[in-house]
Amino acid sequence: MLSLRSSGLFSLIDSLWPPLIPPKVHGQSQGSQEHVDLSTDMFLPAPSFCYILTPLPGEGGVDVLQNESVSDLYQPSTLHDLKHICQHVPERHRCSFSAEVIYRRLQGQPANLQMNKDFWLCVTDSTLQSASHDSEVPRTISVCVTLFCVLGTNVIKSLNDEASSNISFKNAIVEKDSIVCAEGTVLSVQKSMLRSNENQEISPLNGNFILDKLSAKTKLNSLCTVQGTVVGVDESTAFSWIVCNRCENGKLEKKHGEGELLYCRQCAQSVMTPLTKMQLEVFLQYPVLPHSTVKIKLQEQSILSLLLHSSSDEGGYEMSSVLGQELGPLSCYVRSVTNQPASWIGLEEIRLLS
Ligand SMILES: [Zn+2]
């Protein structure tokens, strides 16, 4: 007999078992029903099968019945705060929580969340942001939203928003360094009550989120802050280009016969005042990790502040004058962590949603 268990699916069944009322067992009389009552139902194994409902191709979606009473055979998932989940929920178990999404990492299409790839969200809540914070617990948690997690249109809209959003995650899976949204995980948009309800005993989030400092414990795809001295410039990454001041499209065309005038095909207009974009990656000396190479891709504002103190000539900026300057604290996303053959940490400066 072929025995194939989908671990994601069965961790979901396990999280819903046992139900609120003892289930009836087929083939047993009412008299023997007591064998599965409160005193013994713990011995009843969780079902080893389940049905997956999916719409037929071309039939649209599955309708969710609103205001229907929920069966007692269903054990509703319990909401926990993120600190509780970090400390008490074992790996590969399901958990449910609501959290503030303060950063999203979308690969490829930064301007528009597309649902054709896994992507990362960084979330936090008031228990991770509190002043009396346990240093063993992270300030933010990385959530991987896989292709198996079906997202509703209002969730997609909210995640595409420029502001941070409060999202409820139901039946997500705890993994080693992150939380994973897979089959059976349901995301929904919450009213941001942590901010508006002042009577709540947990402190409201005010938008000034605290991140962990970069350390030897910092994980891939997480957030951290870093502060250090510039000790090198990756010259191969240093360049600037001009974009349309309306749509930031970088593919501007020279219009023939009109001098130096540039034209944006996306806006179908001439670009009178193009914007200059810059890219630069520098190496930081970071006292906490003296033996690690820390490379950081900077945002434009940080590049400009470095260049402000540099000499420039017609040919561009003198990169050596950037060396020795102090940077930070900067909020960063961890793009790579390597320990062999040497410790190397690749960061990208980011702006948190607020
Ligand atoms: Zn344009």
Automatic annotation (TrEMBL):
It holds the Pfam family DUF4503. InterPro entries: DNA_repair-scaffolding (IPR053054), DUF4503 (IPR028032). Residues 5-352 form the DUF4503 domain. GO terms for cellular component: nuclear chromosome; nucleoplasm. GO terms for biological process: double-strand break repair via homologous recombination; regulation of establishment of protein localization to chromosome. Transmembrane segments: none annotated. This is DUF4503 domain-containing protein.
